């Protein structure tokens, strides 16, 4: 008999499979739902915008992870990204509604104050003339602060406002949307442009109110904005005096389009400016 007893062999347990990492997609869905609901309330447009950006980024990242096999909730991630985009749109609409209401209220109050002042001084012809002159001067100043050249600009041109706010649009460049992009239609072409805001004035500028729209071709077909992991960011925060802010946009255009018209509205106190870009 052998001096050493042979030890029995036991089968090794199978290596457990890697656990699916579904956190990004789930978080994107939750934030997208909250953002979309917040966007229905105009006063919460800022919250909808913040949550929309986060949900869009996390949803696209989660969908990419699912595509690579690292997660199993591809549909959830995509839904979260879509809700994030909806939240961004609702935030812009909410901001427009809220600030338009405030602007109308201020104008009505100013009109009522002016009417009351004119009625008080109506018995004195010289005082009435003086008041009329002051009101005319104030109106001209307000129009001047918001005005810019009304002509259509070209690539590389700048829209310069009287308060020294300057918008500059680059020439369009061909762009290839990412695999998980939103806003691009197969068979269409995509182009990206760069918008630079230069605040050379003395007052800070709220960049969150900037809105951009585009039309393509002779028929002026709406050019959808493209969102992916490289383009689609929106202006946020404040541009202080002497500072600049830059954002890259991408637009989806018909394959036969020869031009792209991009319109930028800085806010309610500045007129919109247009650039006609050759493709």
From TrEMBL:
Keywords: Membrane, Signal, Transmembrane, Transmembrane helix. InterPro entries: DUF4352 (IPR029051), Immunoprotect_excell_Ig-like (IPR029050). The chain crosses the membrane at residues 20-37, 43-63, 75-99. Residues 112-128 have a biased composition (Low complexity). It comes from the Bacteria. Residues 183-269 form the DUF4352 domain. Residues 112-152 are annotated as: Disordered. This is DUF4352 domain-containing protein. It comes from Streptomyces agglomeratus.
């Amino acid at each position: 008999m052998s001096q050493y007893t042979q030890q029995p062999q036991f089968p090794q347990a199978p290596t457990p499979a890697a656990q699916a990492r579904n956190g990004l997609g789930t978080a994107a869905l939750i934030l997208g739902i909250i953002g979309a609901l917040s966007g229905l309330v105009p006063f919460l447009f800022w919250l909808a915008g913040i949550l929309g950006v986060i949900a869009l980024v996390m949803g696209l990242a989660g969908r990419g992870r699912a595509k690579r096999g690292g997660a199993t909730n591809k549909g959830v991630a995509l839904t979260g990204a879509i809700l994030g985009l909806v939240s961004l749109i609702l935030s812009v609409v909410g901001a427009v509604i809220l600030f338009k209401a405030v602007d109308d209220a201020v104008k009505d109050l100013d009109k009522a104050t002016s009417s009351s002042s004119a009625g008080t001084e109506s018995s004195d012809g010289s005082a009435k003339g003086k008041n009329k002159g002051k009101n005319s001067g104030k109106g001209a100043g307000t129009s001047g602060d918001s005005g810019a050249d009304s002509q259509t600009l070209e690539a590389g041109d700048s829209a310069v406002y009287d308060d020294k706010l300057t918008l500059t649009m680059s020439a369009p460049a061909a762009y290839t949307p990412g695999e998980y992009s939103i806003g691009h239609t197969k068979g269409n072409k995509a182009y990206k442009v760069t918008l630079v805001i230069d605040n050379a004035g003395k007052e800070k500028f709220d960049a969150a109110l900037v809105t951009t729209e585009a039309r393509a071709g002779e028929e002026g077909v709406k050019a959808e904005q493209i969102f992916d992991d490289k383009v689609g960011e929106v202006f946020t925060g404040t541009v202080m005096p002497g500072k600049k802010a830059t954002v890259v946009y991408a637009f989806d255009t018909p394959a036969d389009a020869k031009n792209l018209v991009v319109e930028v509205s800085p806010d309610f106190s500045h007129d919109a400016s247009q650039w006609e870009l050759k493709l």
